[in-house]
Design brief:
There is one protein chain. With about 350 residues, the chain is of the alpha/beta class. It has 13 helices and eight strands. The protein has a domain at about 25-170 and about 230-255 and about 270-340: 3-Layer(aba) Sandwich (Rossmann fold), CATH 3.40.50. Strands 1-2-4-3-5-6-7-8 form an eight-stranded mixed sheet, sandwiched between helices. The longest helix has 21 residues, at about 1-20.
Length: about 350
């Protein structure tokens, strides 16, 4: 009898120890979304709220780095990462031919990608058996997330934006800012590059990219960097095919975002103006802004925030943060996600 009780007790103890595992979910697969297979990962505690991450770029997936940055969140949330149309493994399923004719016949649009995001959210609600989720977007993903939330607020508890894009079509203020910083720092190399480039607007996507390289240099110099291991690809993504798909998808997506008159590819960003088109959201809104962000400056995000009508809104300005992620940004994301009110409806 003693042995029976002993083994029953050990069995109960082991069951208790393993109980967290029964709520753990880890899926990495292609999901058919609006006619094409798109790469989606779902990781975390299936008893907890869903967070749908909308990555930046366009063409810059979080999936290769998500375990490095967000692994600790998995006990508190169910984390969904998505390689958008034209990005990463989704791009790799149907790679693009870089000819003007092919590019013109396979344009990316924010309307199509918002429709993809809505279809993904609908899939997650059905697949995971939850009524809503938290929506978070960064940089390009912040503009896309606003479009998604505006069309289907019923799918989301709240929107958390980081490096919020508002009206990205005018590169003039960004050029003037980095030119001033280069002059102040006697940075002749940057001044020569900017002089050779000339003031915007630009007809070629590659010229926009050249300006952004100077912007990133100064943002990096004035902000706290992320931990060194964050943006190292995890083992599954550290291979020649994934690397090539990320590079090619980034090029394809950026040409569509910036536009290129020589290739006759229209610009996605020309049509983005949240002050004009999205001055109301029907869910709570939280914005995280880096004080040293040049690409999406605080003047622009604060102007939209001030105009925005929402049930609740808060704005957080982080010192020593620029456009990208660092520890303070991710800590604030976590704090805000934990504070979102989750209801049964």
């Amino acid at each position: 009898m003693f042995l029976l009780v002993y083994f029953m007790s050990i069995g109960s103890l082991l069951a208790d120890q393993s109980s967290p595992l029964k709520d753990t979910l880890s899926e990495e697969k292609f999901v058919l979304i609006n006619g094409i297979e798109q790469w989606v990962t779902i990781k975390g505690n299936k008893a907890k709220p869903i967070i749908l991450f909308i990555h930046g770029g366009p063409g810059s997936p979080i999936t290769p780095y998500a375990d490095n940055v967000y692994k600790d969140w998995e006990k508190d949330f169910l984390l969904v990462q998505w390689d958008q149309r034209g990005t990463g493994r989704t791009y790799g399923k149907s790679p693009v031919q870089f000819t003007p004719e092919y590019l013109q016949a396979h344009l990316l649009t924010i309307e199509q990608m918002a429709a993809d995001g809505i279809a993904l959210a609908e899939y997650l609600v059905k697949h995971l058996g939850k009524p809503k989720m938290i929506l978070t977007g960064t940089s390009w993903g912040s503009a896309l997330a606003v479009k998604i939330a505006a069309k289907r607020p019923d799918l989301f508890y709240a929107y958390i934006g980081h490096s919020q894009i508002v009206d990205p079509s005018n590169d003039g203020p960004m050029y003037d800012k980095v030119y001033q910083l280069a002059q102040q720092g006697h940075d002749q190399m940057a001044l020569d590059a900017l002089d050779a480039l000339g003031k915007p607007p630009y007809n070629r996507a590659k010229h926009v990219g050249m300006l952004l390289r100077v912007v990133k240099k100064y943002e990096k110099a004035n902000s706290t960097p992320p931990p060194a291991n964050w943006f190292v690809e995890t083992t599954n993504y550290n291979n020649p095919k994934d690397e090539q798909d990320r590079q090619d998808g980034d090029d394809y997506s950026f040409v569509n975002y910036a536009g290129d008159k020589v290739l006759a590819v229209p610009s996605i960003r020309v049509g983005i103006n949240l002050l004009r088109d999205n001055a109301e959201l029907k869910i709570p809104v939280y914005l995280i802004q880096g004080e040293e962000d040049i690409l999406t400056p605080k003047t622009a995000s604060k102007a939209w925030f001030d105009k925005l009508q929402a049930p609740h809104k808060e704005y957080f300005l982080l010192p020593k943060a620029a456009h990208g992620f660092n520890q303070s940004v991710v800590d604030m994301q976590y704090k805000l996600c934990k504070g979102v009110r989750i209801t049964a409806q």
